[in-house]
Amino acid sequence: GRGRTEVTVLVLGLDNSGKSTLLDALRPPEQRARHLAPTVALQQDHFQSGGVSFSAWDVSGAPRHRALWERHYRRAHALVFVVDSSDRLRLGNAAVLVPPPGGLVRYIMCGVRCAVVAREELELLLCHPDVCGRRVPLLVFANKCDAPHALAPAQVAAGLGLERIADKPWHICASNALSGAGLTDGISWLARQIR
Ligand code: GTP
Question: Residues 194, 78: contact at Cβ < 8 Å?
């Protein structure tokens, strides 16, 4: 490889998507937090996977912190985007707003936009001048795959419009940050892209 010992991974996603839980699950058991509070701004985390040492920033999902996290785009070697695959309303593509079996999708029309959707957030990231055109690998976790009526990774990929990404390698995998399922697969892919 390139002999790089530490890489900086930015972990982004809407609030409540599972970023803190996911990073916690990647830590050795004795270092795990018992209770996770909503992220206030930025949290730094170190972990090893596939022979690569990761230094990860858990970037708060709260839009008011945007200026804070955009400063870290330039030094990111890899991007992790976490999506709550059961949050159909905030995924962002009307085409995948499929009601859960026996359920309804309720559209609430408001005069103002009250929630940012994941697709929009990802687009903002990918067209940022410090990210666009750089060949940084993008790993998408379709998290909360255990939740009732969670969308399959292919549906999440379609909802996010991942197939349009041409300037960087990307990969999507289903994950359950509570049990740890799927995390190793995703991080191993990332490690292979970086080395
Ligand atoms: P912010 O700090 O607000 O940006 O949120 P976050 O993205 O860090 O989410 P967090 O890790 O705090 O998780 C939000 C909630 O989702 C918590 O109640 C978690 O226990 C739960 N959660 C996280 N991952 C999973 C998962 O894979 N499955 C299920 N069922 N719940 C999850």
Answer: yes
Q: What is the predicted pLDDT for the residue at 12? A: 87
Task: Give 20 Cα–ligand 1 centroid separation in angstroms.
Answer: 7
Beta-bridged to residue 56, according to DSSP, are 9, 45
Say which amino acid occupies 53.
S
- Residue spans of the domains in the chain: they are 6-194
Mutate to test the pocket of ligand 1, among 10, 20, 58, 146 (most ligand atoms within 8 A of CB): 20
> With contact defined as beta carbons under 8 Å apart, do 135 and 171 qualify?
no
Q: Is the CB of 181 under 6 A from ligand 1?
A: no
What the block records as the tokens of 104 is: 């309804």
DSSP 129: T
pLDDT tens for each residue of 87-111: 888 887 654 455 555 555 444 443 3
Whose tokens are 């976490």? That residue is 82
**156 closest CA partner among 93, 78, 80:** 93
Atom of ligand 1 nearest to the CA of 143: 27
Domain 6-194 fold: Rossmann fold (3.40.50)
Would the ipTM clear 0.90, i.e. be above it? yes
As a whole number of angstroms, the distance between CA 179 and CA 90 comes to 23
Q: Is 63 in the pocket of ligand 1 (CB under 6 A)?
A: no
Alpha helices in 71-137 (DSSP H): 118-126
